[in-house]
Amino acid sequence: MTIRVLLADDQTLVREAFAMLVESARDMEVVGQAATGRQAVELARTGRADLVVMDIRMPDLDGIEATRLIAADDDLAGVRVLVLTTYDTDEYIVDALRAGASGFLVKDTRPAELLDAIRTVAAGESLLSPGPTARLIERFLRSPSAPATGGPECLSEREREVLALVARGLNNTEIAEVLGLSPLTAKTHVSRIMGKLAARDRAQLVIVAYESGIVTPGNI
């Protein structure tokens, strides 16, 4: 199946470079390019995209709000968002994840990694890793501006253990190994947790885990 990709970035050269890269992959095609967040939302609605590669800082409507509008639109329920960030200077990545993004990459990532990320997110997974991603998330969640939410009291003790491991970036197979479960059982636990917390994907589970205190800053 061909992955239909929409590129949203206010820099023409960046968009064109990404477009050439995406078109070089046999399993992908570019279905549109947007220079603003508002254009990204409009093209997501009309271009039948599977995934939006979204810059955060754009004129008219930034990538966070554009992501929020896409995630909230029932007609775009199947559209995934992969956010790009400059990492060290971008302080909005957690807001993007809360808004519904399924993961993020730094803009200077290697071409092959970007293509793999697109495939991962388009397949319904979240692009989270136990290293830089987790540290970046915890840095902003412990800041004074990060809103607090209640703990997931509806979860069982086992589900809380699984959620903590998800927040550390472990996939289902790794979770199964840590807890002595089968991969299928681990996957079932993750699915039930997402259902109970009404989470869009694993990225939002990470946010819940940190905000609720199941995982604390520095405890990676």
UniProtKB/TrEMBL annotation:
Top-rank lineage group of the source organism: Bacteria
Domain HTH luxR-type stretches: 148-213
Sequence positions bearing 4-aspartylphosphate: 55
CDD domains recorded: LuxR_C_like, REC_NarL-like
Record domain Response regulatory: where: 4-122
Any Pfam family matching the protein: Response_reg
Keywords, in A-Z order: DNA-binding, Phosphoprotein, Transcription, Transcription regulation
Protein name: Response regulator transcription factor
